[in-house]
Design goal:
Layout (H helix, E strand, L loop, with lengths): L16 H16 L3 H17 L13 E3 L4 E11 L5 E10 L6 E3 L4 E9 L11 H4 L2 E7 L5 E8 L5 E4 L6 E2 L4 E6 L2 E7 L4 E2 L6 E2 L5 E4 L6
Helix pairs in contact: 1-2
Amino acid sequence: MPEYNNEGRRLIAAPGHRFIWPLVGVFLLGLALNSPWLALLGLIGASFFTYFFRDPERPIPQEPGIVISPADGKVIALDEVTEEKFLGRPAKRVCIFMNVFDVHVNRAPVAGRVAASNHRDGCYKVAWHPCADQANEQQATLLEAEAGRRVLVVQIAGLLARRIISYVRPGQALARGERFGMICFGSRVDLYLPPDTEILVQVGDKVQAGASILGRWWLDAA
């Protein structure tokens, strides 16, 4: 798995350069060969991937005890489940669907240490399918946050998403809102939170990674 630096300011997510620059080359080749169709193909392709891999800066909320969105997209489900593999306990789950027009860079919902990072192969059902969280390819990142709380973020590949990219490794410390990975192209992110978390969003809400507040918890409770 390639490694990418998740620090610093940028306009384009690092994984996008391998898509964009070859198409810029196609555009320039079309100009050199006086081939309008080749130049147009390169221009359209480079423009699409530049838009898709955009990575805007976000104002990260600094209020104590809040949980921010790990992904851009629409909240498609809120429920309570028992997550056995990483948490071994009940959890509140927030499911966010990312369409192909959303920013696909994912950000840490809370500050914490990466306790586990696990990739699992799978199929590619549409991301909003009820079975997608069980059947699809996915990357799970477990964070150990304040007061001993554990938060699980699961990046789930969708029908078009054929690649999940993780920027982090176990033991790494992440700040709230720090970039930890992305998914290409159109996908879903499930966030598992402690049962005492107060959820502040509803199904159908549009959220932004690093900027939207999804929930909060009491700082003196584990």
